[in-house]
Give the backbone structure.
Amino acid sequence: MSKKMMLAGLVAVGCFAFNASAQTAAVPAEKAKVQVEATKATVPVEAVKTENSSPIQVGFWFDVPGYTEKYKVHGFRLGFPFSGTSMVSGFDLSLFGSHINNLDGAQVSIGYCGTSAKSYGLQAAVGVCMNTGHFDGVQLSLFNKADVSKGWQVGGGNVTDDIDGAQVGLANVVDKVKGFQAGIVNVVTRSIGPQIGLVNYADRSSFQLGLVNINKKSGMPFMILFNYSK
């Protein structure tokens, strides 16, 4: 009888110890879960990124002072006599010239306006307007250059690889134009639209109107007054 009682007592003690250890292990797990939920509630999923920008800048040379390179402009930048090179969203006015990364607005100078990446708006200068990427808007100067343009080039000479819009000037040179060319001399590889000038040259042009019209894919490659090809 005593052996049975001793055995029952050992079983009871064992059950009690097992339950106690299980409860002890559950408490930290539950506590950890609460801490995780609290952390999720207090810490945002993505940290808010701050942008280095300023509403007004004054530059004296390209990247001088240094903040003209490091801080973007959302507002107005004055270059006296030069400025650059960070992004400008707003208005960039320089005496002799500025070259910036991106433009979203207007860039005006007596000498030179340049951008090196996709830009939107107006470039206007007495001397040169140049974009080495994609420019959507209007370039207005004695000489305009863009890799790809969607808009207008107006000046003494206009050069681009591909334009969806118009070239108006003394001499216009483009690989492909979807729109029109108007000038003294117009040169294009492929024109979807008219060429209007004294001398028009194209590998293929849908319509040419001028004194001399050379259209290599036309039934008559050389014609006076007008020419066309499909």
